[in-house]
Amino acid sequence: MHDDRIIELYFARDEQAIRHTADKYGAYCTAVSMNILHSEPDAEECVNDTYLKTWNSIPPTRPSSLRLFLAAIVRNLSLNRLRDRRAGKRNPVIEVSLEELSECIPAPNDQNEGELASLINEFLGTCSKTDRIIFVQRYFYSLSDEAIAEGLGLTRNAVSLRLSRTRKRLRVYLEERGYAI
């Protein structure tokens, strides 16, 4: 079923919307959650919570991309679950990726969060397709350098180098637009 039709089912408050969402995007949402949690029961719960949050969000929200809308919800729920589950413990991949980003992105606040997100999207539009894929897989989907390298047919060192260069370019891009890092 096409995404527009699924969204219309949500607007009509038809519970079939959840079934169609699960059929079309269940495996995708599970993969996003598993990349963060590495636990099938926790991922399954986050995916189910994603369906509930989607039901409660549509309407009034009308996402332009249902897939990305779901990914953002399941990712945030999974990160919250990880934070709760590992209070006092560290997840090496997520901790490293957050440390990497802190070198080039200022901490968002209520006044600049939307603008900062827009600037990062603009910056990614200037990058090569491969660099965009690597950046998003690392910092949105929380994949390790090894997993990214395997998926793209690159070496781990090539992925690390591309990420480093992309972060440096992002830092310069943001500084040129008035963000102090």
The averaged pLDDT comes out at 87
Q: What's the CATH topology label of the largest domain?
A: Arc Repressor Mutant, subunit A
State the total count of DSSP E strands.
Answer: 0
Q: What is the highest CATH level, the class of the largest domain?
A: Mainly Alpha
Radius of gyration (Å):
18 Å
Second rung of CATH, namely the architecture of the largest domain = Orthogonal Bundle
Largest sheet: none
- Tertiary shape: globular
Range of strand content: under 5%
Low-confidence stretches: none
SSE ordering:
HHHHHHHHH
What distance lies between the first and last C-alpha atoms, to the nearest angstrom?
A: 44 Å
- The proportion of residues forming helix, as a percent range, comes to over 70%
| Helical/strand content category | mainly alpha
- Count up the helices: 9
User: What is the domain total for the residues?
Assistant: 2
CATH superfamily of the largest domain, by name, is Winged helix-like DNA-binding domain superfamily/Winged helix DNA-binding domain
Your description of this structure?
By secondary structure, this protein is mainly alpha-helical. The protein has 2 domains: 3-85, RNA polymerase sigma factor, region 2, helix turn helix motif (Rna Polymerase Sigma Factor, Chain: A); 92-176, Orthogonal Bundle (Arc Repressor Mutant, subunit A). It contains 9 helices and no strands. It has helices at residues 3-11, 16-37, 40-57, 66-85, 92-102, 113-126, 129-139, 145-152, 156-176. It starts with a helix and ends in a 5-residue tail after the last helix. The model has no long low-confidence stretch (mean pLDDT 87).
